[in-house]
Amino acid sequence: MKLLKGLALSLLSFLLFLSLSTFGIVLTLNYTILNPDFIVSELNQLDISSMVKDLFSSQIPQDEPYVAEAIDNTLADLEPWIRDQMQDTIYSGYDYLLRKSQHLALEISLEPLRDSLKDNLREAILQSPPPELEGESPTVIELYISQIHQYVEEMIPPRFELNENSLDPEVLSQLMEVKEAIGYVQLAYRILITLILLLILGIILMQRQVKGASRELGIIFTTYGAFEYVGIIIAKHLIGTQLPQFGMPSAFQDWLPQLLKDILLPLEIFSLVLLVVGIALIIVSFLYKPRQPAETEAL
Predict the structure, then answer these.
(1) What is the rounded distance in angstroms from the CA atom of residue 211 to the CA atom of residue 214?
(2) What is the pLDDT of residues 250-259, one digit of tens each?
(3) Per-residue pLDDT tens for 213-264?
(4) 87-123: buried (b, 16+ CB within 10 Å) or exposed (e) per residue?
(5) In angstroms, rounded to a whole number, what is the distance separating the alpha carbons of residues 90 and 45?
Protein backbone atom coordinates (compact mmCIF):
# COMPACT_ATOMS: atom_id res chain seq x y z
CA MET A 1 0.00 0.00 0.00
CA LYS A 2 2.83 2.37 0.83
CA LEU A 3 4.37 1.68 -2.55
CA LEU A 4 1.10 2.39 -4.35
CA LYS A 5 0.58 5.52 -2.28
CA GLY A 6 4.10 6.68 -3.12
CA LEU A 7 3.57 6.05 -6.82
CA ALA A 8 0.23 7.86 -6.74
CA LEU A 9 1.77 10.87 -4.95
CA SER A 10 4.64 10.95 -7.44
CA LEU A 11 2.18 10.88 -10.33
CA LEU A 12 0.03 13.65 -8.83
CA SER A 13 3.13 15.75 -8.09
CA PHE A 14 4.42 15.33 -11.63
CA LEU A 15 1.04 16.23 -13.11
CA LEU A 16 0.78 19.27 -10.84
CA PHE A 17 4.25 20.48 -11.86
CA LEU A 18 3.40 19.95 -15.53
CA SER A 19 0.04 21.72 -15.12
CA LEU A 20 1.68 24.70 -13.41
CA SER A 21 4.23 24.97 -16.22
CA THR A 22 1.52 24.91 -18.88
CA PHE A 23 -0.71 27.27 -16.92
CA GLY A 24 2.11 29.81 -16.66
CA ILE A 25 2.34 29.98 -20.45
CA VAL A 26 -1.43 30.19 -20.93
CA LEU A 27 -1.69 32.84 -18.20
CA THR A 28 0.97 34.92 -19.93
CA LEU A 29 -0.82 34.68 -23.29
CA ASN A 30 -4.15 35.71 -21.77
CA TYR A 31 -2.70 38.75 -20.04
CA THR A 32 -0.50 39.91 -22.92
CA ILE A 33 -0.83 38.75 -26.53
CA LEU A 34 -4.55 37.97 -26.24
CA ASN A 35 -5.35 41.14 -24.29
CA PRO A 36 -6.11 44.19 -26.49
CA ASP A 37 -5.60 46.54 -23.51
CA PHE A 38 -2.03 45.26 -23.19
CA ILE A 39 -1.36 45.72 -26.91
CA VAL A 40 -2.76 49.26 -26.89
CA SER A 41 -0.73 50.13 -23.79
CA GLU A 42 2.48 48.85 -25.39
CA LEU A 43 1.85 50.64 -28.68
CA ASN A 44 1.31 53.89 -26.78
CA GLN A 45 4.96 53.63 -25.75
CA LEU A 46 6.06 53.32 -29.37
CA ASP A 47 7.33 56.34 -31.28
CA ILE A 48 4.47 56.37 -33.78
CA SER A 49 5.87 59.34 -35.69
CA SER A 50 9.16 57.59 -36.44
CA MET A 51 7.42 54.36 -37.40
CA VAL A 52 5.00 56.06 -39.80
CA LYS A 53 7.82 58.22 -41.16
CA ASP A 54 9.78 55.09 -42.05
CA LEU A 55 6.67 53.81 -43.84
CA PHE A 56 6.22 57.06 -45.73
CA SER A 57 9.87 57.15 -46.72
CA SER A 58 9.38 53.98 -48.75
CA GLN A 59 6.25 55.35 -50.46
CA ILE A 60 7.08 59.01 -51.11
CA PRO A 61 10.31 60.21 -52.76
CA GLN A 62 12.07 62.51 -50.32
CA ASP A 63 14.75 63.91 -52.57
CA GLU A 64 13.32 67.39 -52.03
CA PRO A 65 13.74 68.91 -48.54
CA TYR A 66 10.15 70.17 -48.54
CA VAL A 67 8.84 66.58 -48.71
CA ALA A 68 10.56 65.52 -45.48
CA GLU A 69 9.47 68.74 -43.80
CA ALA A 70 5.84 68.22 -44.87
CA ILE A 71 5.83 64.64 -43.62
CA ASP A 72 7.30 65.67 -40.24
CA ASN A 73 4.68 68.39 -39.84
CA THR A 74 1.86 66.04 -40.87
CA LEU A 75 2.90 63.40 -38.38
CA ALA A 76 3.17 66.00 -35.62
CA ASP A 77 -0.32 67.29 -36.44
CA LEU A 78 -1.94 63.87 -36.73
CA GLU A 79 -0.17 61.80 -34.06
CA PRO A 80 -3.23 61.80 -31.71
CA TRP A 81 -5.44 60.86 -34.68
CA ILE A 82 -3.06 58.07 -35.72
CA ARG A 83 -3.07 56.64 -32.20
CA ASP A 84 -6.87 56.76 -32.04
CA GLN A 85 -7.21 54.94 -35.37
CA MET A 86 -4.65 52.35 -34.33
CA GLN A 87 -6.48 51.78 -31.05
CA ASP A 88 -9.85 51.36 -32.79
CA THR A 89 -8.27 48.93 -35.26
CA ILE A 90 -6.79 46.81 -32.46
CA TYR A 91 -10.04 46.59 -30.51
CA SER A 92 -12.09 45.79 -33.62
CA GLY A 93 -9.63 43.09 -34.67
CA TYR A 94 -9.57 41.52 -31.20
CA ASP A 95 -13.37 41.58 -30.98
CA TYR A 96 -13.38 39.42 -34.09
CA LEU A 97 -10.55 37.10 -32.99
CA LEU A 98 -12.00 36.68 -29.49
CA ARG A 99 -15.46 35.94 -30.95
CA LYS A 100 -17.05 39.02 -29.40
CA SER A 101 -18.03 40.06 -32.92
CA GLN A 102 -19.26 37.68 -35.60
CA HIS A 103 -17.83 39.67 -38.51
CA LEU A 104 -14.67 41.60 -39.23
CA ALA A 105 -15.63 45.12 -40.27
CA LEU A 106 -13.18 47.97 -40.12
CA GLU A 107 -13.34 51.28 -41.98
CA ILE A 108 -11.03 54.25 -41.45
CA SER A 109 -11.38 57.54 -43.30
CA LEU A 110 -7.97 58.68 -44.55
CA GLU A 111 -9.19 62.12 -45.54
CA PRO A 112 -7.57 63.80 -42.50
CA LEU A 113 -4.22 62.30 -43.53
CA ARG A 114 -4.59 63.34 -47.16
CA ASP A 115 -5.71 66.88 -46.31
CA SER A 116 -3.01 67.45 -43.72
CA LEU A 117 -0.25 66.15 -45.98
CA LYS A 118 -1.43 68.28 -48.91
CA ASP A 119 -1.63 71.40 -46.75
CA ASN A 120 1.83 70.84 -45.32
CA LEU A 121 3.30 70.12 -48.77
CA ARG A 122 1.79 73.33 -50.09
CA GLU A 123 3.15 75.37 -47.18
CA ALA A 124 6.60 73.80 -47.44
CA ILE A 125 6.81 74.43 -51.20
CA LEU A 126 5.75 78.05 -50.86
CA GLN A 127 8.27 78.66 -48.07
CA SER A 128 11.18 76.82 -49.70
CA PRO A 129 10.48 76.28 -53.42
CA PRO A 130 12.56 73.60 -55.15
CA PRO A 131 15.29 74.88 -57.51
CA GLU A 132 13.21 74.22 -60.62
CA LEU A 133 10.58 76.68 -59.39
CA GLU A 134 12.99 79.53 -58.71
CA GLY A 135 11.76 82.64 -60.52
CA GLU A 136 8.58 80.94 -61.78
CA SER A 137 5.23 82.70 -61.72
CA PRO A 138 2.59 81.91 -59.06
CA THR A 139 0.59 80.13 -61.75
CA VAL A 140 3.40 77.68 -62.46
CA ILE A 141 3.95 77.12 -58.76
CA GLU A 142 0.25 76.41 -58.22
CA LEU A 143 0.31 73.96 -61.13
CA TYR A 144 3.28 72.18 -59.54
CA ILE A 145 1.47 72.03 -56.19
CA SER A 146 -1.68 70.63 -57.82
CA GLN A 147 0.40 67.88 -59.42
CA ILE A 148 1.89 67.01 -56.02
CA HIS A 149 -1.61 66.97 -54.51
CA GLN A 150 -2.81 64.65 -57.27
CA TYR A 151 0.07 62.29 -56.53
CA VAL A 152 -0.87 62.27 -52.84
CA GLU A 153 -4.50 61.44 -53.69
CA GLU A 154 -3.39 58.59 -55.94
CA MET A 155 -1.05 57.24 -53.27
CA ILE A 156 -3.44 57.53 -50.31
CA PRO A 157 -6.98 56.22 -50.84
CA PRO A 158 -9.90 58.15 -49.30
CA ARG A 159 -10.58 55.33 -46.86
CA PHE A 160 -9.16 52.08 -45.60
CA GLU A 161 -11.57 49.15 -45.44
CA LEU A 162 -10.97 45.72 -44.01
CA ASN A 163 -13.61 43.00 -43.92
CA GLU A 164 -14.01 39.34 -44.69
CA ASN A 165 -14.91 40.06 -48.31
CA SER A 166 -11.82 42.16 -48.93
CA LEU A 167 -9.44 39.55 -47.56
CA ASP A 168 -7.72 36.93 -49.65
CA PRO A 169 -9.27 33.48 -49.00
CA GLU A 170 -5.93 32.18 -47.79
CA VAL A 171 -5.58 35.04 -45.30
CA LEU A 172 -9.16 34.54 -44.13
CA SER A 173 -8.47 30.85 -43.62
CA GLN A 174 -5.44 31.72 -41.50
CA LEU A 175 -7.54 34.10 -39.40
CA MET A 176 -10.05 31.32 -38.78
CA GLU A 177 -7.20 29.09 -37.61
CA VAL A 178 -6.02 31.86 -35.26
CA LYS A 179 -9.55 32.23 -33.85
CA GLU A 180 -9.71 28.49 -33.27
CA ALA A 181 -6.30 28.48 -31.56
CA ILE A 182 -7.35 31.37 -29.30
CA GLY A 183 -10.49 29.43 -28.37
CA TYR A 184 -8.33 26.46 -27.35
CA VAL A 185 -6.10 28.73 -25.24
CA GLN A 186 -9.09 30.21 -23.43
CA LEU A 187 -10.53 26.73 -22.84
CA ALA A 188 -7.17 25.48 -21.59
CA TYR A 189 -7.03 28.39 -19.12
CA ARG A 190 -10.26 27.29 -17.44
CA ILE A 191 -9.45 23.58 -17.58
CA LEU A 192 -5.98 24.06 -16.09
CA ILE A 193 -7.30 26.07 -13.14
CA THR A 194 -9.74 23.25 -12.35
CA LEU A 195 -7.08 20.57 -12.87
CA ILE A 196 -4.56 22.32 -10.62
CA LEU A 197 -7.10 22.65 -7.82
CA LEU A 198 -8.08 18.98 -8.15
CA LEU A 199 -4.44 17.85 -8.12
CA ILE A 200 -3.74 19.93 -5.01
CA LEU A 201 -6.81 18.44 -3.35
CA GLY A 202 -5.69 14.95 -4.39
CA ILE A 203 -2.26 15.44 -2.81
CA ILE A 204 -3.84 16.74 0.42
CA LEU A 205 -6.21 13.75 0.59
CA MET A 206 -3.38 11.31 -0.12
CA GLN A 207 -1.17 12.80 2.59
CA ARG A 208 -3.96 13.29 5.15
CA GLN A 209 -1.52 15.33 7.23
CA VAL A 210 -0.82 19.03 7.31
CA LYS A 211 2.92 18.42 7.63
CA GLY A 212 3.14 15.99 4.72
CA ALA A 213 0.79 17.90 2.40
CA SER A 214 2.51 21.22 3.12
CA ARG A 215 5.94 19.79 2.41
CA GLU A 216 4.84 18.00 -0.78
CA LEU A 217 3.09 21.08 -2.19
CA GLY A 218 5.87 23.36 -0.95
CA ILE A 219 8.53 21.38 -2.80
CA ILE A 220 6.49 21.44 -6.03
CA PHE A 221 5.75 25.15 -5.84
CA THR A 222 9.31 26.06 -4.84
CA THR A 223 10.88 23.92 -7.56
CA TYR A 224 8.66 25.31 -10.29
CA GLY A 225 8.88 28.90 -9.06
CA ALA A 226 12.67 28.82 -8.72
CA PHE A 227 13.34 27.26 -12.13
CA GLU A 228 10.85 29.54 -13.89
CA TYR A 229 12.07 32.69 -12.17
CA VAL A 230 15.72 31.95 -12.95
CA GLY A 231 14.79 31.16 -16.55
CA ILE A 232 12.99 34.51 -16.88
CA ILE A 233 15.99 36.40 -15.47
CA ILE A 234 18.24 34.69 -18.03
CA ALA A 235 15.75 35.42 -20.84
CA LYS A 236 15.56 39.12 -19.87
CA HIS A 237 19.35 39.32 -19.85
CA LEU A 238 19.54 37.77 -23.32
CA ILE A 239 16.85 40.17 -24.56
CA GLY A 240 18.87 43.13 -23.34
CA THR A 241 22.16 41.94 -24.84
CA GLN A 242 21.20 40.11 -28.05
CA LEU A 243 18.30 42.09 -29.56
CA PRO A 244 20.27 45.31 -30.12
CA GLN A 245 22.59 43.33 -32.41
CA PHE A 246 19.81 42.76 -34.93
CA GLY A 247 19.25 45.46 -37.51
CA MET A 248 15.89 47.01 -36.61
CA PRO A 249 14.26 50.31 -37.52
CA SER A 250 15.12 53.06 -35.07
CA ALA A 251 11.52 53.22 -33.83
CA PHE A 252 11.81 49.63 -32.58
CA GLN A 253 15.30 49.83 -31.10
CA ASP A 254 14.19 50.68 -27.55
CA TRP A 255 10.56 49.57 -27.75
CA LEU A 256 10.90 45.90 -28.72
CA PRO A 257 13.17 44.82 -25.80
CA GLN A 258 10.80 46.49 -23.33
CA LEU A 259 7.82 44.83 -25.03
CA LEU A 260 9.34 41.38 -24.61
CA LYS A 261 10.12 42.09 -20.96
CA ASP A 262 6.53 43.25 -20.38
CA ILE A 263 5.26 40.04 -21.99
CA LEU A 264 7.31 38.02 -19.50
CA LEU A 265 6.07 40.04 -16.52
CA PRO A 266 2.89 38.00 -15.73
CA LEU A 267 4.91 34.77 -15.84
CA GLU A 268 7.58 36.36 -13.65
CA ILE A 269 4.99 37.41 -11.06
CA PHE A 270 3.31 33.98 -11.18
CA SER A 271 6.60 32.12 -10.65
CA LEU A 272 7.67 34.49 -7.87
CA VAL A 273 4.34 34.07 -6.04
CA LEU A 274 4.61 30.27 -6.25
CA LEU A 275 8.21 30.42 -5.06
CA VAL A 276 7.23 32.46 -1.98
CA VAL A 277 4.18 30.28 -1.27
CA GLY A 278 6.28 27.14 -1.70
CA ILE A 279 8.94 28.32 0.75
CA ALA A 280 6.21 29.29 3.24
CA LEU A 281 4.62 25.83 2.98
CA ILE A 282 7.98 24.11 3.55
CA ILE A 283 8.56 26.25 6.63
CA VAL A 284 5.06 25.36 7.87
CA SER A 285 5.81 21.67 7.36
CA PHE A 286 8.78 21.91 9.71
CA LEU A 287 7.19 24.15 12.32
CA TYR A 288 3.75 22.56 12.45
CA LYS A 289 3.18 20.27 15.39
CA PRO A 290 0.12 18.04 15.27
CA ARG A 291 -2.19 18.11 18.25
CA GLN A 292 -1.88 15.14 20.56
CA PRO A 293 -4.94 13.01 21.21
CA ALA A 294 -6.78 13.89 24.44
CA GLU A 295 -5.94 10.51 26.01
CA THR A 296 -2.24 11.05 25.45
CA GLU A 297 -2.37 14.55 26.90
CA ALA A 298 -4.15 13.26 30.00
CA LEU A 299 -1.42 10.72 30.60
Answers:
(1) 5
(2) 666 778 888 8
(3) 999 999 999 999 999 999 999 988 887 676 655 556 566 677 888 888 899 9
(4) eeeebbbbbbbeeeeeebebebeeeebbebbbebbbe
(5) 15
